[in-house]
Write a structure and sequence with these properties.
By secondary structure, the protein is mainly alpha-helical. The chain has a domain at 60-162: Glycoprotein, Type 4 Pilin. It is 46% helix and 6% strand. The protein is built from three helices and three strands.
Amino acid sequence: MAIRTGLVLWALRAIGDRLKPPDRSRRERGDAGFTILEILVVITIIGMLIGVVAPAALRQLGGARVSVAKQSIERLSTVLDLYNLDMGSYPTSEQGLTALVEKPAAATNWNGPYVKGDKIPLDPWSRPYVYRRPSERPGHEYDLCSTGPKGDASQQDMICNP
């Protein structure tokens, strides 16, 4: 029985020693933080990641705006086709896209407004679409274009109806 009691006491002391926090000196307790070098390394790595990821994200954003502009031009082209069915012709360059929102003078079959709201939508760069009738391109009755990301009205940068 004495041997069993001795083993139990020995086991309890061993467990108690493991549960006790280690005796650490004051110097060891002060080393719990990060050094300035470690912080600088982490900041450098984060900066490099941002430098690699940001340009790719901006390219995606630019591509998305071009895609939205093409879809908006197709939608406005459909609306212009509805206007043509009602009125018998597309709006003139002087009437512009405003004819889709406001009834033109002497229009008898106007069934508008053809777009929601009281304003013509803007392109993804918050600029008005360019509308011309007659078209400057062969085989088209009108031109409906966005000036694109640069806002330049040169033909190569414009996004136009197909």
